[in-house]
Design brief:
The chain has three domains: about 60 residues, no CATH class; about 200 residues, Growth Hormone, Chain: A, CATH 1.20.1250.20; about 190 residues, Growth Hormone, Chain: A (Up-down Bundle), CATH 1.20.1250.20. The protein has 20 helices and six strands. Strand 3 and strand 4 form a beta hairpin. It is globular and about 55 Å long.
Length: about 475
């Protein structure tokens, strides 16, 4: 990337601007003291006048205007670093995916009432999801590269031994340990994803999320096969591949950390040079609430879809395949959401996708069986589109707390949605899974409404990559 710096202050002063020399990966920052100040600047080092649009063209980056600060970002994400972070997410969530099935089998082996199943699942969500912002706030200030592989190591170890535990107390201890490992990993990985994404932050976040989605979808299938052939001790076979993955992460993460620090270094200059903005707590809360509603719909279908399918004549293996397909195909939506948000704007993409999912959700119940399954899978894709843009919006509103922002969206929102799924179980018990799932199928409309309400609050912070450059030039 070419970098243009100013060697004298005179031309900038004549334009009413100040130029700050930045680190290479961020490029050029021009601070305008008041609205309406000229947006072009004489760069004495190259004897040329660079408008924000020309800077965008020459550097291939994003020109972003906040508080009258023009910032040029690198356009190309670090795909190698993002792949490592996505891999770490996939490994961790693979083991997270075995937890519900492990709880079900262990409690059955001990002849414990199914009522305890909900308590153990809540314990998992409490330690793995709801507390994520707390760990994110800490790692944002004191994070180290080894936090991520260490957290994955804790999750791998605890959950590999969970199914073979001799008592329910030991099972609870494994769930707590594995949950804490997951709660540390997610904010750290989300922070690295944002730092490595350059101008296309939503695309980078989507790459990170796809790894977790694939891992989470494969986990239940793997533990089911091991239990079927080897019994409870079969889960111990999960430890070896997990250990190899952890070793690989310890080898790869130092390079990822250096690349992330290099790419993100210029933001420190921006934060100290531009006026500090108060955090929009209402806006952040609205985004978390809207995401929780979307999680609620997805989790409701993941949880109670087998009940509905089996009640309508589908075999258990077929129901399992449909649920796995619902989880796996959502990866398409994750990737598409990131790319579309970077091009057209996060709020717009979220609203269109959430509204578009509703007809397909109802189509699942009304269309003939084969077409209904196709409608369900398309709904899963559209629901997943919201993931990366939503995280990107909150990270933009909390630029100094990238990990905590990820924890709020992937942790708290997921925890709230999962809690609502537990309450929905009462409807399933009294009225059946069909009534329960149809009752939540309109919920994405409410989530879309929340995003529309929050749109004016983020209008000054989120800008599509290409559109931002054109607005800057105007």
């Amino acid at each position: 990337m070419r970098v243009f710096t100013h060697t004298t202050g005179l031309p900038a002063a004549q334009c009413g601007m100040t130029i700050i020399r930045e680190r290479v990966m961020l490029g050029l920052v021009v601070i305008c003291p008041k609205a309406g100040a000229p947006t072009s600047v004489t760069a004495a080092s190259v004897k040329t006048i660079f408008t924000p649009m020309l800077l965008y063209t020459l550097t291939g980056g994003r020109v972003d205007r906040r508080n009258h600060v023009w910032m040029v970002y690198p356009s190309r994400p670090d795909f190698r670093g993002l792949s490592v972070v996505s891999f770490a997410h996939g490994v961790s969530d693979f083991y997270s995916g075995v937890v519900p099935f492990t709880i079900f089998l262990v409690l059955g082996r001990h002849h414990v009432s199914p009522a305890y199943q909900g308590a153990f699942v809540f314990l998992w969500y409490l330690t793995s999801s709801i507390v994520q912002p707390l760990f994110g706030a800490y790692t944002d200030r004191r994070g180290r590269w080894w936090f991520l592989p260490s957290a994955v190591a804790v999750t791998v170890t605890a959950l590999s031994f969970a199914a073979a535990t001799p008592s329910l107390a030991t099972l609870a201890a494994c769930i707590i340990a594995g949950g804490i490992g997951s709660a540390v990993m997610h904010p750290e990985a989300g922070k690295y994803s944002a730092m490595l994404s350059g101008a296309r932050r939503a695309s980078g976040i989507s790459i990170f999320q796809v790894g977790g989605q694939i891992g989470y979808a494969l986990g239940p299938a793997a533990i089911a096969v091991l239990f079927a052939h080897l019994g409870p001790s079969g889960s111990l076979w999960l430890f070896a591949p997990g250990a190899l993955a952890v070793v690989a992460l310890f080898v790869l993460m130092p390079r990822v950390d250096r690349a992330a620090a290099h790419a993100h270094a210029g933001l420190a200059v921006h934060s100290t040079s531009a006026p500090a903005q108060a955090v929009d707590h209402v806006g952040v809360s609205l985004l978390v609430a809207g995401t929780a509603l979307r999680y609620f719909v997805t989790a409701a279908f993941m949880t109670y879809l087998p009940n509905y399918l089996v009640a309508h004549g589908t075999t258990i293996p077929q129901a399992g395949q449909i649920v796995s397909a619902f989880l796996l195909i959502s990866s398409v939506g994750l990737l598409a959401g990131g790319s579309l948000a970077d091009r057209f704007g996060a709020v717009r993409v979220c609203v269109i996708a959430l509204v578009g999912a509703v007809p397909f959700l109802y189509g699942f119940f009304t269309a003939p069986s084969g077409y209904g399954i196709v409608a369900l899978l398309l709904a899963g894709v559209l629901l997943a589109v919201q993931n990366a843009p939503g995280v990107t919006l909150v990270q933009t509103m909390l630029p100094k707390n990238l990990g905590m922002a990820l924890g709020l969206m992937n942790g708290v929102a997921f925890g709230i949605g999962s809690g609502l799924v537990a309450l929905l179980g009462l409807v399933v018990a009294s009225a059946g899974p069909g009534v329960a799932l149809q009752s939540v199928s309109a919920m994405p409309l409410l989530a879309a409404l929340v995003y529309r309400i929050v749109a004016p609050r983020v209008a000054g912070t989120e800008q599509p990559v290409i559109a931002a450059a054109h607005r800057a030039a105007g």
